[in-house]
Amino acid sequence: MSILHIKNITEYHRLMQLPKAQHPLVSVINFADIKRKENITVSSFTHGFYSIALKQVFNGKMKYGQQEYDFDEGVLAFIAPNQVMRIEVEDEQKLNHSGWLLIFHPDFLWNTSLAQKIKQYDFFGYELTEALHLSDKEQNTLADLMQNINHEYNSNIDKFSQDVIISQLELLLTYSERFYQRQFITRKKSNHRILEQFETLLNNYFKSKDLQENGLPTVNYLSTSLNLSPNYLSRLLKTQTGKSTQEFIHEKLMQLAKEKLSTTELSVNEIAYSLGFEHPQSFGKLFKKKTELTPLEFRKLYN
Can you give the pLDDT of all 303 residues of the chain as single tens digits? Predict the structure, then answer.
């Protein structure tokens, strides 16, 4: 599969047959203005800049990593630089989408508060299946901000332009963070299904030879198996259960350790090795931290 890397905003405008960009490091684009070149056969792209897409209508599919997503009305997606995305449209069908696209190069953030702060927004690392679903009211709020940025972008550039756009961008990201938090709460059915899958995955891992051979499952392993980003999984668990992914892993481990200590005659060292610990001392330290008892003290309660 060939991947087209679009290095900068000027190149993106040229490729999409858009008018010349007003600013080399930032652009606001109405999706209706994007033209699909017939001679472009590559549909997988990476960008050298950030993208925030407010999709209101989209008749294609977007693929991010191994995940495919059908956009419905009112969806916000965030793509960080150098992430691969694929657009698929059925043969002989014209790409039809509406909404706003805000793109900005990392250099645009130099000497601003967003230069470091933008790294704290988890949604730029999300899989596309974790796009933000918007209510009509939320959609209007963000569309207004996009249009405010567009108005400033199309005004005469002066020494205040960057500050005005940055302030609007910060507000847009703050609203997005608020709406994401709402999504964790309101999408209970979908989240409940993910929790069930997480529990099943964790149980199967602890029953398999993987635990003894590879040690405890990592957060990356669990999130990848669920087609989620580590941050998204951790935040979902924290919101729904009050526990982090690591806390879930340790809780499951303690349940298994208590079972072995109370129902088998295996030594503490043998139990530690069977649970994937290279050093029994590490097992004892974690067990004492989680239960306030040493493994032997716990065993005595059942003998």
Answer: 467 888 899 999 998 889 998 888 999 998 888 875 554 555 677 888 999 988 765 555 665 544 555 555 557 888 888 777 776 655 555 666 778 999 999 999 988 889 888 887 877 765 545 567 788 888 889 999 999 999 998 887 788 888 999 999 999 999 988 888 776 655 555 566 777 788 888 888 888 888 888 888 888 898 888 888 788 788 778 876 778 888 888 888 888 888 888 888 899 999 999 888 888 899 999 999 988 989 999 888 766
CA distance 277 to 271: 9
Cα dihedral 41, 11, 79, 125 sign? positive
Q: Are 144 and 28 in contact (CB under 8 A)?
A: no
Interacting residues of 222 by C-beta distance below 8 A, sequence separation 6+: 198, 201, 202, 233, 245, 249
Strands lying side by side in the sheet with 75-79: 26-30, 97-104, 50-58, 75-79, 132-133
